[in-house]
Amino acid sequence: MKKEEASLPNGLVVEWSSILHFFPWPPLRSIHSCLPLHWRTTTPPPCCGLLQSRPRRAAGRPSPMASAAVAIHQFAECITCHAWSPDQSSNALAPSPSSALDLIVRNCSDFRIASRASGRWGDLLVISVIAFCPNNNEVHIYKFFTDKWEKLHVLSKHDQIVSGIDWSRSSNKIVTVSHDRNSYVWTQEGSDWVPTLVILKLNRAALCVQWSPKENKFAVGSGAKSVCVCYYEQENNWWISKVIRKRHESSVTSLAWHPNNIYLATTSTDGKCRVFSTFIKGVDTRAATDSKFGEQIAQLDLSSTWAFGVRWSPSGKILAYAGHNSMIYFIDDVETSPAAQNLALRDLPLRDVLFVSERMLIGVGFDCNPMIFAADETGLWSFVRFLDERKAAPSTSKASQLSEALGKLYGQSKQGTSSDTVEPSKPRGGAHENCITCIVPIRKGSDSTTKRFSTSGLDGKIVVWDLENHINIGK
């Protein structure tokens, strides 16, 4: 139900959603629908006494309700994965006041559907080209033209759901994997995308894929308890896959390349996180410390449940991954003397994580809201807050207490819990409405910090987040 507010000249507002939520009687809804339009949008009806004070904000001062979600794009009913084009950092568009955009923008304190509205929105981050899977066997590529998104291509070589997409930054190649056990490397020739089949030698579904930092190889995780590392053989003009088979005891759920282009971290539904060497003669430059292909560097048995979302910090000194038991794990110095820190969450489990700097991490998952984690000067990690958590003004506490009291009178708390002994969960915001399954950084050049990133999930939305002016990212 859309939230409606009526503003008074002195700055007081009435929240109709609070009344209709706690007293969903048809007569009350009928009265609301029959009210004069100017009562519903500018002044409250005389019979209403549920008022909350909202202090006026000085011009130029950021709103306490401002959101880090700068753009929300509804592309499909469900999105499996997504990736941005290599020119992602050079296409920030500021839409003109007369443009009609097929996207939802959250600016300051409200959602607005952009439709030839007057007024300037500022520098809205809109990336030009995106590839995503709408939970089927296709990959859709869209481009933003002036005032709307247009579908450019549909990559449809796969027979089953596409489970992973990655778009290389330097070579402009797209790699896709699917439950059909195959992988394709797509090369743009003119206006078309030409696929090259990569035989993975798998007997179960491919689940995830990622290019290496140098983009001379990519790794594929699978349900066959194995990882394929693929590279291009110039002599025979084809892609070859080498398989790491022996170590995993269950499906490989996520992958992460170390900045050295050799080490590969994996997580699995056997609850373990492992680090392997992927050195390939003729592809990688050998160093004195390099191990042979497939050698296990470390095995981290910290979680008793499924493990997801593994990532390295920008320097490669810290490894982080999430467990399905609402835990997140941070490991320092994996190669030499691993030191682990286990952080328990009060909320739902995470599905993916992303380092935005050496001492800050974003986690996404079943709470439908990115979570911020940070390390102090001693290296101790802790949960900071939800990124999309809407800060209430201090003067709204009485209204919140009144709403909670009305909820108890109606027989349940404001959040829908029926027991007074259970602490109600906090509202998470509204950018995503279902589980977030994918998080992708949006970087400029070789920046070690990530100020912007995007998320996608089971609600079919792709959300662009901007961390500037919301939190100090650090180094």
From TrEMBL:
**Cited Gene3D superfamilies:** YVTN repeat-like/Quinoprotein amine dehydrogenase
* Composition bias, Polar residues: 412-422
Q: Where are the WD repeats?
A: 155-186, 245-277
Name the InterPro entries on file. ARPC1, WD40/YVTN_repeat-like_dom_sf, WD40_repeat_dom_sf, WD40_rpt
* GO biological process terms on file: Arp2/3 complex-mediated actin nucleation
**Localization of this protein:** Cytoplasm, Cytoskeleton
The GO terms describing molecular function are: actin filament binding
State the source organism's domain of life.
Answer: Eukaryota
Presence of keyword Repeat: yes
Q: Where is this region: Disordered?
A: 411-430
Q: Which UniProt keywords apply?
A: Actin-binding, Cytoplasm, Cytoskeleton, Repeat, WD repeat
Does Ribonucleoprotein show up as a keyword for this record?
no
Instruction: Kindly list the GO CC terms recorded for this protein.
Output: Arp2/3 protein complex
Q: What does this protein do?
A: Functions as a component of the Arp2/3 complex which is involved in regulation of actin polymerization and together with an activating nucleation-promoting factor (NPF) mediates the formation of branched actin networks. Arp2/3 complex plays a critical role in the control of cell morphogenesis via the modulation of cell polarity development.
Q: Which PANTHER family match?
A: ACTIN-RELATED PROTEIN 2/3 COMPLEX SUBUNIT 1 (PTHR10709), ACTIN-RELATED PROTEIN 2_3 COMPLEX SUBUNIT (PTHR10709:SF2)
What interactions and quaternary structure are annotated?
Component of the Arp2/3 complex composed of ARP2, ARP3, ARPC1/p41-ARC, ARPC2/p34-ARC, ARPC3/p21-ARC, ARPC4/p20-ARC and ARPC5/p16-ARC.
Task: Please state which protein family the record places this protein in.
Answer: Belongs to the WD repeat ARPC1 family.
Official protein name in the record = Actin-related protein C1
- Tell me the organism: Eragrostis curvula (weeping love grass)
Q: Taxonomic lineage per UniProt?
A: Eukaryota, Viridiplantae, Streptophyta, Embryophyta, Tracheophyta
